[in-house]
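Write out the 3D structure for:
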Amino acid sequence: MKFEIKLQNHFWFWGIYFLLNFLRWGAYFNDYGYSFKSNLVEFALHIPLVYFNLFVLIPHYVLKSHYYKFAIALLLSLMAVYLLKTGMTYYIISENIWPEANRDYKPFEMNHIVAVCIGELYVLAMASSVYLTLTWLKERDRNRALREEQFKIKLKYLKNQIQPHFFFNTLNNLYALSLESSDKVPDVIIKLSKLMEYVLYDIEGTKFVPLIKEIDYIQNYIEIEKLRFENVEVTINIESNIDDVKVPPLLFISLLENAFKHGGYNNSKLIIKINCKLADGFLNFEIINNFVLSQSVKSSNGIGLTNTKKRLKLIFKNNFTLEHQVKFNYYIIQLQIPIYNED
């Protein structure tokens, strides 16, 4: 329980409530002077009781499940309010402590006690309901913002985990070429710098990027791998217009890494086919690579694919599919995600 609502709003609430009560009872008894004085006495007791309930009784008893203590404390509070109201009414307003009734009442008569307590409980319930509802709405918005922030942090963590994984593999490739004193090293360094520029600047702080840029990123990666693998054939087939389509950054690279890592064996030609098309509001992305059947397929156990599944779950909930299968000597990964357009 925190004093979350602005102080001025508390004044507005009690001021409007007092005015309505003053006009209501003033018109009912045709005596606005009496209505003003009686409401002044009542609100002098309503307000402390409400805040005592909100900031003392509820936090100390209700939120800690000490309900019987809360009931006793509330009962004692109501009795204190009854004594104060009866005394103030008698000495400030009228010796008739309950002018609204159809006869004169003496202090501590049961009907008068019940009427005063019910009146206080009514105000207490109404004011507390308004406050607790507003507090709950604010807390809901805060929790929603916190969940969104946690989502962003987790997503950023997963994305950052993918990047070092990729660059670690690429630097290993570069190291292997340098040991051979290969003249391909300068080309690899240039292409690697382009990939790093995309990761460090182009996608920084973005949740979705144009699919075209992701395809360009994939093509640069393929060119680096072609410098390392002599016998490799990669084809990219785009069957739809993807100009306005956006996707999460670095979503496909782990799938492609998987194909290069586990495809082709024993110096056989590595064949990779990439298919991309739009259908029924979804983007279908497929990677097919050959491999030797006698070799175990470990592609689904890598860090990259694990992170890809986690990212998909965070971004699209359950509205995606990521499947893999083996047909003859080809390993196939199929990804389907909702289409995100520019507009």
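The radius of gyration is 36 Å.
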